[in-house]
Amino acid sequence: MKKTLFGLVLALCLVGANSVQADSYDHEMKGAGVTFSWKVDGDTLHGKLSAKTKGWVAVGFNPEEQMQGGNYILGFVKGNDVEVVDHFGTKKINHDLDEDLGGTSDVTVVGGSEKGGTTTIEFTIPLDSGDQYDTVLVADGETKVVLAHGPPRDSFKARHRKQAIKTVNLSTGAVK
Q: In the 8-state DSSP scheme, what is residue 138?
């Protein structure tokens, strides 16, 4: 009985610790109906995306022209499953999985939910993955951030209807 109770208490403490870590972000920006919250911790970016959609939410970093050359993190929630992918902008209006291009998926899923018509995903990515299909994020420099979300269906093939592009300093949160 004591071992079972101890195990239950330990499990609850670990869940609570993960929730606190996942919910503590230093900065936030909004655009195109998406809220992007983030924290830079050493060489890692902890991110949270949320939008009023039952489809996907996405953030992109440092596209060169329209979508081309940018690193994109997209995610949706279907039932209890959270799917998050790492894409690279291959053309002005197209992006593909890093892995399909010969790169690696460098996103780690932290969590996600779909409640009241709002999709939220949480993830981490390295600031510099070393993957040629990820842009290097300079925490204390200027980073172009793209926010978008899809229509209410769980498919990365569904296109966004609008997007927001802003320049931010990931360390200070200052938005231009």
A: -
